[in-house]
Amino acid sequence: xxxxxxxxxxxxxxxxxxxxxxxxxxxxxxxxxxxxxxxxxxxxxxxxxxxxxxxxxxxxxxxxxxxxxxxxxxxxxxxxxxxxxxxxxxxxxxxxxxxxxxxxxxxxxxxxxxxxxxxxxxxxxxxxxxxxxxxxxxxxxxxxxxxxxxxxxxxxxxxxxxxxxxxxxxxxxxxxxxxxxxxxxxxxxxxxxxxxxxxxxxxxxxxxxxxxxxxxxxxxxxxxxxxxxxxxxxxxxxxxxxxxxxxxxxxxxxxxxxxxxxxxxxxxxxxxxxxxxxxxxxxxxxxxxxxxxxxxxxxxxxxxxxxxxxxxxxxxxxxxxxxxxxxxxxxxxxxxxxxxxxxxxxxxxxxxxxxxxxxxxxxxxxxxxxxxxxxxxxxxxxxxxxxxxxxxxxxxxxxxxxxxxxxxxxxxxxxxxxxxxxxxxxxxxxxxxxxxxxxxxxxxxxxxxxxxxxxxxxxxxxxxxxxxxxxxxxxxxxxxxxxxxxxxxxxxxxxxxxxxxxxxxxxxxxxxx
Length: 513
Ligand code: BG6
What we know:
- By secondary structure, the protein is α/β, with parallel strands linked by helices.
- The protein has two domains: 4-174, 3-Layer(aba) Sandwich (Rossmann fold), CATH 3.40.50.720; 208-504, 2-Layer Sandwich (Dihydrodipicolinate Reductase, domain 2), CATH 3.30.360.10.
- Helix content is 35%, strand content 20%.
- The chain contains 16 helices and 18 strands.
- Helix 2 packs across helix 3 (73-87), helix 7 (181-192) packs antiparallel against helix 15 and helix 10 crosses helix 15.
- Residues 1-12 have low confidence and may be disordered.
């Protein structure tokens, strides 16, 4: 359980101006498209319950489901109930559930159904009257991007994209934001024809993670890291997001997209921007986005993409003691698919701070273990007054930000081994969230959905960042497209041989987290 009592609106001790506590959303509702999908079931609906449980939703909060199902409100409530029982983070409390469920409505229909969108408008008006949602509604499109245009068009057509008077209307979309620069621009046009840019909330769920926000706290609240944070001291940076699972039942989403589009274009480039950016003048959205954009627009790809990128596809084998099929034998994957399930790129940031410091980004499915981390690897001391045998087991100093699991930070440095005349070996100094704080980190979706309802935009990338990221990745994707089949790699390994060769050429090795 979280600090519920502190967060509850009726707590007389709560000072609404206190920025340490999460704010409570004002009167509002959320319309969820794609209620039958994985995202809605595993993330969105449970996060809404968790927010209610933490006292962060207004008492009249309403959730409208929209889907092509012949459901009554009660059927929808049952679907939400099952998803909450299965996936919510906080304890199930009957009284919280009952109050929340009173605001559930369901509108059956498909995205071309004018009658259904009229019904949606009536439903929202009814909620404004009966639940006091005040005309404020967010439309959450947990649906494939190919339908975004249809839905926002219908919202406009049926008078839903603008609220009455001062009421707000917002649209929430999930990646992929296009599959290259051109389609990202088209998508942005579709959205901006209907919603002003400040009403479009693009979810990159990594930005909702506590440990990702902590990158800013760690860098800008402390004196000791920033002086080292540049090409004088940093040798290179490795950003890894590894998963041990395969694609499961997500063939429809994943095939043709692959790991670089799925993860590097968004999560990893955002992490890189946070690690590399200059200090923003404040943490408001405009200042943060400006600094991130400056990083992304300074990225230059190395000339030889054949030597500085790697991609792979997992083969059949053993993972976690189980025999697993290769990507090409996964359900609904065509045997000729060239989709990458592993991708690695080397990026150079051409600024005074980072010139000559490569950023290596890698991601993959069916790798050794599930781990996301940022490792800042430092240059060796310019002079070591020891013999080479004394420092045989000393590697580079490193600062590792552990995004997940086992959230925290490690500093690796050399220390004398006790009892030896002089032998120096790597040791780790650790900060672990679990052992330091009693508060449990909320799920990324809790933070992000609450921010949508509050209209608080800093954690949502804007279309400029999205387009800059595609601009970086497009030449890599075009290079791979010419090459045909990706290299196979063993499940449980750390990617294909070419990934290791890519770092070896630079005299470096990937970390084995
Ligand atoms: C999603 C990707 O954005 O992130 C998935 O589409 C991936 O392929 C997921 O599995 C991983 O998220 P997390 O939060 O578990 O690291």
